[in-house]
Amino acid sequence: MGKIVVKIGGVASDNLTTGFFNQIKDWQASGHEVIIVHGGGYYISEMMNRLNIPVVIKDGLRVTTEQALKITQMVLIGQVQPTITTLFQQQGFSTIGLNASCGELIQGEVIDQQKLGFVGEITEINPAAIENVLAKQYIPIVAPLGITKDGQWLNVNADTAACKIAEAIDAEALYLLTDVPGVKYQNQWLERITIEEVEALKAEAVITGGMIPKVDSAVDSLENGVKKVHITNCIEVAGTIITKEAVYA
């Protein structure tokens, strides 16, 4: 059976409900392999505010100075990831937390150091780092950090990381969890849309704000081999399914 990648937010209590874990169990029971990618922006901002370090966002990306990068690493690997792995383990799952230093899992390069600091664009994913964990019957739980060829750590977008990982391992499905049940059009949640329809909905300003980078990442992954992407607020519900082309039942 296929692989399923799930991107969750950093606030574990928002996503990791009984229903969430039951769905993971159902997927595993039917032979699917599950990979989790987590965010952590809320806790990073909270820690920066606590330390009186300004939080600056440009073009939807967190400006990441050297100091902000250290905090990002500390929060993602030292706080958010252990919290999520522990919650999974309490539900009987075997998990391993992964980050950029694990077999150069997420490789990248600086986008624009003068403007954004150490914010990275993902250039390559090492699928072997994921496959090795799956082969041991563990769920990989991945922090969204990258690393350059010369060993510089990078802050990378969690949605993009999930999409690139899904591409690299030829995932059957990708779930991008958000705070709404999907894409809304004329007061109705859309069940299915194609890449072509995504562009039309963006042009009509139906897809706006923070949903734009999410669907752009989804489109990129579909164009690179992922079968379908779900935009939803809980994995038990399909939400809006995005596919490359129309699917006729």
TrEMBL record:
A Pfam family in this protein?
AA_kinase
What residues does the Aspartate/glutamate/uridylate kinase domain cover? Answer: 3-233
Give me the residues that bind substrate, please.
G40, G41, R62, N155
Q: Per its record, what are the GO molecular function terms?
A: acetylglutamate kinase activity; ATP binding
What InterPro entries does this protein map onto? AceGlu_kinase-like_sf, AcgluKinase_fam, ArgB, Asp/Glu/Uridylate_kinase, Glu/AcGlu_kinase
- Record field: catalytic activity: N-acetyl-L-glutamate + ATP = N-acetyl-L-glutamyl 5-phosphate + ADP
Q: What is its EC number?
A: 2.7.2.8
Give site residues, Transition state stabilizer.
Answer: K7, K214
Entry's localization field: Cytoplasm
Q: Which domain of life is it from?
A: Bacteria
User: What is the enzyme's class at the highest EC level?
Assistant: transferase
* The entry's keywords: Amino-acid biosynthesis, Arginine biosynthesis, ATP-binding, Cytoplasm, Kinase, Nucleotide-binding, Transferase
**SUPFAM superfamilies membership:** Carbamate kinase-like
Concerning CDD domains, the annotation shows: AAK_NAGK-like (cd04238)
From the UniProt record, give the pathway where this protein acts: Amino-acid biosynthesis; L-arginine biosynthesis; N(2)-acetyl-L-ornithine from L-glutamate: step 2/4
- One biological process term in Gene Ontology: L-arginine biosynthetic process via ornithine
Q: What GO cellular component is one of the record's annotations?
A: cytoplasm
Into which family does the record put it?
Answer: Belongs to the acetylglutamate kinase family. ArgB subfamily.
- Relate the protein's function as given in its record: Catalyzes the ATP-dependent phosphorylation of N-acetyl-L-glutamate.
Give the matching HAMAP family.
ArgB (MF_00082)
Can you say what this protein is called? Acetylglutamate kinase
What's the gene? argB
